[in-house]
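Subject: Protein record for review, amino acid sequence with backbone structure tokens
How to read it: Take the token row as a discrete description of the fold.
Enclosed: The protein record, placed directly beneath this head.
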Amino acid sequence: LKHAIESSCFWSSATWFGALMGNAQCCKACTADPRECTLLGGGDGGGGVFSGLDNILLLTDSYKVTHHLQYPPGVETIYSYFECRGGLFREVCFFGLQYFLKRYLVGPVVTRGKIEEAAQFCRLHFSHPIWKYDEKLFNRDGWEHILRVHGGCLPVRIRAVPEGTVLPYKNVLFTMENTDPACFWLTNYLETLLVQVWYPTTVCTQSREQKKIIKAYLTETGCADVIESGLDLFKLHDFGFRGVSSVEAAAMGGAAHLVNFLGTDTMSALIMVKEFYNMDCAGYSIPASEHSTITSWGRDKELDAMRNMLEKYPKGLVACVSDSYDVFQACENYWGTELKSQIEERDGVLIVRPDSGKLPETVLQVLEKLEGKFGSDTTSTGHKKLPDCIRVIQGDGIDINSLEQILKAMKKAGWAADNLAFGSGGALLQKVHRDTLKCAFKCSYAVVGGEGVDVIKDPITDPGKRSKAGKLTLELKDGKWSTVEEGKGALEADQLVEVFCDGKLIVDDSFELVRKRSDGEVEASCVIEEPSEPRMPINPFDNILLLTDSYKVTHHLQYPPQTQTVYSYFECRGGDYEEICFFGLQYFLKKYLVGCTVTLDRINVAEDVCKTHFSHPKWGYDDKLFNRCGWEYIVKQHSGRLPISIKAVREGTVLPYKNVLFTMENTDPECYWLTNYLETLLVQVWYPTTVCTQSREQKKIIKRYLTETGCPDVIDDGLDLFKLHDFGFRGVSSVESAGIGGAAHLVNFLGTDTMSALMMVKRFYNMDCAGYSIPASEHSTITSWGRERELDAMRNMLVQYPKGCVACVSDSYDVFHACESYWGTELKSQIQERDGVLIVRPDSGKLPETVLQVLEKLESKFGSETTLTGHKKLPPYIRVIQGDGIDIKSLDKILKSMATAGWAADNLAFGSGGALLQKVHRDTLKCAFKCSYAVVGGKGVDVIKDPMTDPGKKSKAGRLTLQLSEGGDWSTVTEGKGAPELDQLVEVFRDGELLLDLDFAGVRQRSEETH
């Protein structure tokens, strides 16, 4: 491996491509299996999306590592299922499982190297300064059995409804069970990863609902011909790449949207569909401007910038953002007067894009202004329609509610729906979560001692969480779907199809089939005649040319003549919190930008994608759209390294919003177009920064209540750092997102069950183990014993873990009975005599009432002490963790209620999942990236965006410095007037090289500093 790093041949394109395809060594002297070589996809190759995140043993919640000890004796089979229990939509369109199977489960995914890596990792992760590490926690025997008996292939069977199928919620979507009795523990070990199918399924379902709304209004306003010609499939365009939490999430979510529509600017979605669903090009786009390509001309030359758009693209569809300053003036004076004849005579369609303002008012005003200049026709229903040469797209503030609100307002005002298309970003791909459809994975059947047992979870505190029992069939009779429980279904009527078994993919559906099913066509699954173990690319999303919004491919034609430099910056303009904790940029730099990222192979691949992606059945493809000369220049002149300089505030720094956080500019005048080409990818730093900031705010709340209720010793001992535990892996949108978001949380806390976060910190921030966990149960390890043996299941927890911290979910049936009769009576002496702490976990019920009731029940049995402030505290051997329904608001509410009721904050820890890692978006902190300076014809130009429809979106102008006064006040000095010697921005990247390699300890230290 050492030789592989040092050898230049390792990074040659041919060797790299071979390694990606799994059919070559990483270099001549390295004999490692490409799946075991942790160097692949990282370091000097720009990094891979899955670098360090492809070890199946670690792609789970930490507590599942310990579950092999918790099932009942004699267990042979664990059978579980996935469903959407309810939520916003009554119908569900299932999508995304095939990606997870191909990417993570197919083939020999368990290797000797991965077992050793996981064993060493768990030894650190589960260690404790007092109780050390229990070697039996890690199931080495189980994994070596899989390696020895199954050749590293996973002995599980998965049956699923064919992807694209639309069916009512509360029906089973897939089931999973082990095929080897010795691997009973494996079924639910894989839950964490496979439950992430909630994300593409939810995006696909919501996108489909929006499609229904659009089609309804097209029909109602006399535009049925648009539907008949298939142009309705371009009415909701994906703008979501920069606003989602990771490249992998963008690919999955973008692909899910493409089940329903054909318009996208998320090119990673095209790659996902091609690699995992067998379609060469699933979506299309058009040339379009952004603010930087307009504002870099200057306010006084906005008309010239717009004229340039028409000249550079003399035919076909072209979109132009028109509200950099005054959208109404642009519509009336520029498009409607100065450029009117050019638009009318042009062989194509101009699409005007407002990008700010109140909705639906701004859209209606834009339509009225354009009609005032271009006139309108009427549809069969009497609704007005602009001439075919001009249309509008609204891409700001679009979600399913505003989309319908705008179409409704247009119809009422007499406008046909065909006048408008929509672009949707964060609302399409990020503002969804696991509770949007109430997705859940539960054990429903087990074989114990040779006998089948129906398994059920039935908490008295939330009847809606009652699970299904027994083996399940999904049946379709007379057009009605039903899930038949308890093994009573007819197997011949089962709509679930075996898609995976023992490491082999059984079904390989094309995207075309998925789309047909989503439209109601019944299509049989594509069963592979001879199931194989296809070797998927280690990282299918590593081509930097494609990690951008589609329209940026065309921007090299749009900047003013003789542009030499484009300088842009990233900031948080406002949002929920006044302080920002900056984090995550180093991950993106190391993973995607460092080293030789541009190669001729990647240029060829990208050009091939663009030739189809930008093609049109009438106007064809314009060869000048793809900037081949520019990319080849980077290969020839810079050896494939990106000629960019990035300056940033040191990660972990806390500062007020509305300050610059990083800047970026090209270092080669020929590559002026490159700065904002990289915006899409680097703006994703919004995600770790937002998670880190919100996690830090929760830390402040916890510390305050610990102090106010007499527990300062907890803070002094550093135990407050374990008071908010990350439960978020399954509830976030991708493995990569879990790694990024989980690492951001670890800036502030030490407790996590998101092991991918630890791998991310180790690889990209130089810390061997950034977080810790403990043995803990889940519902399946309790319910598989049966309701009547719940006490035995709980006793087993104390027996298997005779010392240290151990947590046990206690509400599978009746949490209050468990607290009083089991923990407080039957097992009381065992708990009191045990060398450690039992942590009781309620997992449902109304908050804060359930927490208070649990504390009261435990106090009645175990008694309590009082703190310095007179608040009650349970004995040190028993505590409570609340992991259901926790976000920053409920956390504060619970602690406040506890303090009011006389309870010390130290009695409770929190676990947070989706609210911690998923229920954030780019607008949480109003993150934005804008061009503020350019050099054109040798002269520096201050650049600004200043839309009259939203003053809050006014951008900064000129070169920026971030200054910190002696009094600790931060300020961003604009227009190049700052003092460089006071600048807190540090150059971290230049010309493909990382200049500053921060360690995680330093990041944490800075997050604690106050100025």
User: Anything to note?
Assistant: The two ends are 44 Å apart (CA to CA). The first helix runs from residue 2 to 6.
